[in-house]
Design a protein that fits this description.
The chain has 461 residues and is an all-alpha fold. Helices cover 74% and strands 0% of the residues. It has helices at residues 2-19, 24-39, 44-79, 82-94, 99-112, 117-135, 142-151, 153-157, 170-173, 181-208, 232-256, 272-295, 303-313, 315-333, 337-345, 351-366, 369-390, 395-406, 416-425, 429-458.
Length: 461
């Protein structure tokens, strides 16, 4: 019982102190070791160096190329003006009367094309802010719209999305980022539809009360000035390349390669199914980055600085997430965690429900979609694959449910992306979190339930 109390106290402190702004690089090891102290029978230093740091390092080894290339790609899209061009184009097509929809679609196009959600928030916020000011829609709705476009359907649902959350399940289930494309598309449409419906209802209710944009001073970055912007097709080309090449490498190019050497100890005694998802998105991002550089040669003010800034910008996100993975691995190693694991596995009926609960709970605890899913699958992935196989559930469906589950409770108030988004928009949790919560927590959970029901009835499609 003392061990369970230690785990619960550790988790509560992690959420609270992260919400208060203390960096998870400090919190994760300290609070993991606090839980070890409560357990009473586990050596502290060995746990830190041989478990926490080993799991942290393993995550970095596996996913650093994707984080780094994604950050570089996002910075290239930002500094070339491509992200701004795409956002302006979407806004012009939807019109001022659909300002919230324009924000969502602009974010969706950029994130589905591999642009970091942080870069997207910085790029779209000034345009969205100007649109809402012009339409006299409350500014407090901007974070919810950006969250819907960046944290939901393009992160976990749409097939082939280059988001890290869509690639983490691949080595556990032998799948790829295009797993269960039909169900993923349905989930994405539900998220878009319900999210837009909610935001428009909130805007309509505000108008009925006589509430307009609000009293907010102009930001210095709202002018929208940017020299030598690329044409729309040039701006879209790198994003198209990411999606098309990811599909081509996943389905055709890599399967045709002779990869028998992966069975050698030198290459980790692995299989192509365990690495195909990572290889595909790495290759796609490399080609897209090169294309973005070449087609925008006249527009680079300092290409070296752009690449360097993008590279350095990947370090904090991956180490934050890897620290949360290390934290979760320590918690999972404690004897008291067996009670938690058994409670989740004991959920009666469909293994998909157990998987969804486990990933959602751990994503909520850590405040990280990728971190929570990694912990859940490292601990229980093999078990879910066995249970799924016994129940006739395809690995593709397990993959999609795991991915969708990671994008639910992860967006609780202590989530780092939520805090950053509110900071960019110069708003507070009290002003805007209700809309963020509905769009990026409640709506994704509804879509997840729908996918579980459809997948249980009709299988993976």
């Amino acid at each position: 019982m003392i061990g369970v109390i230690g785990i619960v106290l550790s988790l509560l402190l992690l959420m609270y102190l992260a919400y208060r702004g203390i960096n998870v690089l400090v919190l994760a090891p300290c609070l993991a070791l606090m839980a070890v102290v409560f357990a009473g029978d586990t050596p502290l230093l060995a746990t830190y160096t041989q478990l926490f740091m080993v799991k942290l390092g393993g995550y970095v080894i596996t996913y650093f190329p994707i984080f780094m290339l994604g950050a570089i790609f996002g910075k290239l899209m930002d500094d070339s003006g491509a992200a701004r061009v795409i956002a302006h184009w979407v806004a012009s097509k939807t019109g001022a009367g659909q300002a919230l929809l324009a924000i969502v679609l602009a974010c969706g196009i950029l994130t589905y094309g591999g642009v970091s959600l942080f870069v997207v928030a910085f790029a779209v916020y000034p345009i969205g802010n100007a649109l809402l000011r012009e339409a006299d829609i409350p500014k407090r709705l901007i974070p919810g719209a950006i969250a819907l476009g960046s944290f939901t359907f393009t992160m976990t649902a749409l097939p082939g999305t280059p988001a890290i959350q869509n690639n983490i399940p691949s080595p556990f289930f032998g799948t790829d980022g295009f797993a269960a494309p039909g169900l993923g598309t349905i989930a994405g449409l539900i998220m878009i539809g319900l999210g837009i419906l909610w935001l428009n209802m909130r805007a309509k209710a505000a108008k009925a009360r006589g509430e307009g944009y609000g009293d907010h001073p102009l930001d210095g970055n709202e002018t929208g000035n940017h020299d030598n912007l690329p044409p729309l097709l040039v701006a879209l080309l790198p994003i198209i390349l990411v999606v098309v090449l990811n599909f081509a490498f996943t389905k055709y190019i890599i399967p045709m390669m002779d990869t028998g050497y992966l069975a050698d100890a030198k290459y980790g005694k692995t299989t192509i199914d365990a690495v195909r998802g990572n290889w595909s998105i790495i290759a796609a991002l490399v080609f897209a980055c090169v294309a973005a550089i070449l087609i925008n040669l006249p527009r680079w003010r300092n290409l070296k600085e752009t690449v360097n800034t993008g590279t350095m910008g990947s370090l904090l996100p991956i180490f934050n997430t890897a620290s949360e993975v290390g934290y979760g691995s320590v918690i999972a190693s404690l004897a008291a965690f067996v009670l938690v694991r058994d409670a989740v596995l004991a959920i009666p009926g469909n293994p998909l429900i157990s998987e969804a609960v486990a990933v959602n709970v751990l994503a909520g605890i850590t405040g990280s979609a990728s971190g929570g899913m990694s912990i859940a699958l490292q601990t229980l992935g093999k078990t879910y694959l066995e249970l799924g196989t016994a129940a006739g559930i395809s690995p593709e469906l397990l993959h999609r449910v795991a991915t969708l589950s990671s994008g639910g409770f992860d967006s609780l108030p202590h989530n780092g992306a939520v805090i950053t988004l509110l900071s960019i928009c110069k708003l507070t949790h009290r002003q805007s979190y209700v809309d963020i919560g509905v769009c990026s927590v409640l709506v994704p959970v509804i879509s997840l339930i729908t996918v579980i029901v459809l997948g249980s009835m009709f299988g993976s499609f």
